[in-house]
Design a protein that fits this description.
The chain has helices at residues 5-17, 37-52, 85-92, 97-101, 105-124, 127-138, 156-160, 179-183, 205-238, 246-249, 290-297, 319-329, 360-364, 378-387, 400-410, 423-435, 437-451, 457-470, 485-488, 491-529; strands at residues 27-31, 56-61, 77-81, 143-147, 166-171, 253-258, 274-276, 303-307, 335-339, 352-355, 369-374, 391-393, 413-415. It has 530 residues and is an alpha/beta fold. The radius of gyration is 27 Å and the shape is globular.
């Protein structure tokens, strides 16, 4: 990332203004539980930034946490791995891309909570989790930095850790609906869409109603289904009943780092301890492997990159869809670099190169890349925006529909429907994304807006982790986290006002009727006298 000297100066001045030195070494426990390679990449980059600032890292996650090219950070990091959990997770996935597409919002909410419970149970049983538990019992931990997307069963580590650590939460999953429960904010369904809904502003009245309904259903599932099971697992993990419920203990979060940024995401009102660090995982581009570099350099008409992330593999799209895609790609003048997980792709055109893995961030920075055809996962979307590459997206599940809907409305992306996919449709979308100057122009503008910040998102995140340690009372926290939904949303006030107004109307009605009755009584008495 090409940040100016001004950014660095601002960061240093902020640190100096707090009267704090980053030289003091902290023992930081990082926890990342979501079974997603992209989440692990985001988590690793955050841990790298903390290690680079001189802190000791104890990382508990799906993969080993290690850093490339940062001198001295290797000796500062100790990894505890949920061994074999990722392999077992992918083997146990019996949902095809089409089945995910046909899953309703409410069912998807239930499925993700179910997966969260199942994954926690598997992770707790690993040697890596057990070793991490013993480590925190005997090692001073200054700060716990945990992915709170799922994994509340590991809140027990907060209670047994030596050193009474402060807690910083984070989520690479944008700004999920449950964040408000942790920080005492508001979901603002009129502004923010539920991640699985797929519709973004402007909302019709029906869409707003559905959006609110999905928020409420998800909240009920989390409160009555997910969190009670997490409580049982947390007690089981530490071998005793926790002194407080997981719902209460998560209010200890001092700072919440979210993978969002208002220039791209729908802006919403959040407490000051919610820090938007969207795009934290994006690094300066590194040299590409020679074969990929030559393939892109020699692309006279530009290149298209295809990648559907780590959870939707191209090789599982189905033979009929692959034939449709290949027929379209063979008609393009551009070269196509495709993240394709199988070793061979029968019928592959000459202009297509397949690789099981791509350094996507580095590839998108190449000047010959014209379009990214993706699943519109958040991290891929942020990389495309960062490097100013227009998107053609074919979403499957969770937040992917929301991400592409947002970008289509911004005029920087085009949508492809997996179920109705045709060769003609693919050619039309890709050619329009390449040749329509308005799409490219708007994406460049969005990229500039997304990059324009006082300091890099990683530096901002690191600074706030250190700020949480320096200020353990959590001065940026909102008092709303200790309020009920009724109090926070002023439902008690509205109820009081409603009752008061109704009481006034009722009393007024009685007084008016009494006045009329008295008037008629006096009138009749007067007539009687006359």
């Amino acid at each position: 990332m090409d940040f100016s000297l001004y950014s660095v100066v601002v960061m240093r001045l902020l640190i100096i203004s707090c009267g704090a030195s980053v030289a003091s070494t902290l023992n930081i426990l990082g926890i990342s539980t979501l079974p997603s390679n992209s989440h692990h990449i985001w988590f690793s980059e955050l841990m790298r930034g903390l290690a680079r600032n001189g802190h000791n890292i104890y990382a508990l996650g799906l993969h080993e946490t290690k850093f490339d090219g940062d001198e001295g950070t290797e000796n500062r990091t100790q990894s505890f791995v949920f061994e074999h959990v990722m392999e077992d997770y992918y083997k146990g996935q019996d949902f095809s891309p089409l089945e995910w597409l046909r899953t309703s919002v409410t069912k998807m909410a239930w499925l993700t909570h179910k997966i969260g419970n199942n994954i926690c149970e598997q992770q707790m049983a690993t040697d890596g989790a057990k070793r991490a538990l013993e480590m925190v019992k005997h090692t001073r931990i200054d700060v716990i930095v945990q992915d709170l997307t799922y994994g509340q069963c590991f809140y027990g580590l907060w209670e047994v850790a030596q050193g009474n650590p402060v807690v910083v939460g984070f989520t690479p999953f944008g700004s999920p609906n449950w964040v408000n429960k942790v920080v005492g904010g508001n979901n603002w369904p009129a502004i923010r869409t539920h991640p699985y809904f797929g519709k973004t502003q402007p909302f019709s009245i029906w869409e707003k109603t559905l959006n609110l309904f999905y928020y409420e259903v998800d909240e009920l599932l989390r409160h009555f289904y997910y969190m009670p099971r997490q409580q049982e697992l947390a007690d089981e993990f530490i071998g005793k009943k926790m002194s407080r419920s997981v719902s209460e203990i998560e209010k200890n979060v001092s700072i919440m780092l979210t993978n969002s940024y208002a220039a791209l995401d729908p802006a919403a009102f959040s407490p000051p301890n919610v820090i938007e660090v969207g795009g934290l995982h994006i690094k300066d581009s590194k040299p590409l492997p020679q074969d990929i570099l030559k393939f892109l350099d020699d692309a006279e008409d530009g290149a298209i990159v295809i990648s559907f992330g780590s959870n939707i593999q191209s090789s599982t799209l189905g033979s009929d869809k692959l034939k449709i895609i290949l027929a379209a790609l063979g008609q393009l003048k551009q070269r196509v670099l495709w993240k394709f997980e199988a070793t061979d792709l029968p019928g592959r055109p000459k202009n297509v190169m397949i690789r099981k893995w791509l350094p996507q961030n580095d590839v998108l920075s190449h000047p010959k890349v014209r379009v990214l055809w993706s699943h519109s996962g958040l991290l891929s979307t942020q990389e495309a925006v960062w490097w100013g590459v227009p998107l053609v997206a074919m979403p499957f599940y969770m937040d992917q529909h929301m991400n592409i809907d947002l970008l289509v409305k911004k005029g920087v992306a085009l949508y492809l429907d997996y179920e109705s996919l045709t060769t003609e449709m693919i050619l039309e979308r890709l050619n329009r994304a390449i040749h329509d100057p308005s799409i490219s122009r708007r994406m460049k503008e969005l990229s500039r807006e997304y990059r324009d910040r006082p300091m890099s998102p990683l530096d901002l995140a690191v600074w706030h982790v250190e700020h949480a340690f320096r200020n353990p009372r959590g001065p940026l926290s909102s008092p709303g986290k200790n309020m009920s939904r009724i109090e926070l949303n002023l439902l008690d006030v509205y109820a009081f006002l409603t009752i008061t107004i109704l009481a006034i109307l009722w009393i007024s009605r009685i007084l008016v009727r009494a006045s009329f009755h008295l008037f008629h009584l006096r009138r009749s008495q007067k007539l009687h006298i006359n």
